[in-house]
From TrEMBL:
It comes from the Bacteria. Residues 9-77 form the HTH gntR-type domain. It holds the Pfam family GntR. This is GntR family transcriptional regulator. CDD domains: WHTH_GntR. Keywords: DNA-binding, Transcription, Transcription regulation.
Amino acid sequence: MQINFEDERPIFIQIAEGIEDGILTGGFAENGQIPSITELSVNYKINPATALKGISLLVDEGIIFKKRGVGMFVAPGSVSKLRAKRKRSFFEHYIKKLVAEAKKLEITSEEILGMIERGYKE
């Protein structure tokens, strides 16, 4: 996970997304422990409150849970929950814009599919 202090996204969002990425790629297994607030704040040289805010987003979404006195863990079913969330976001942020631009350029859906296929091959 990397934090980009020049990024327009707040650091706590980058923390949450970095942990999400770790869950999706298998870096953090379901029922496995994630780094503590202290570890995150020390490793990335950020305020512990900022790390807590990122973790809290994931707790609120049911992606991670706290075991009192032990730490934070990835909730069962988090991978499928995150995939569904990211697919919805992908559609909203990328596909809708792609289709709108394609319509302006009079690109057919078949042409778009061909371009996507070409992109997967490259």
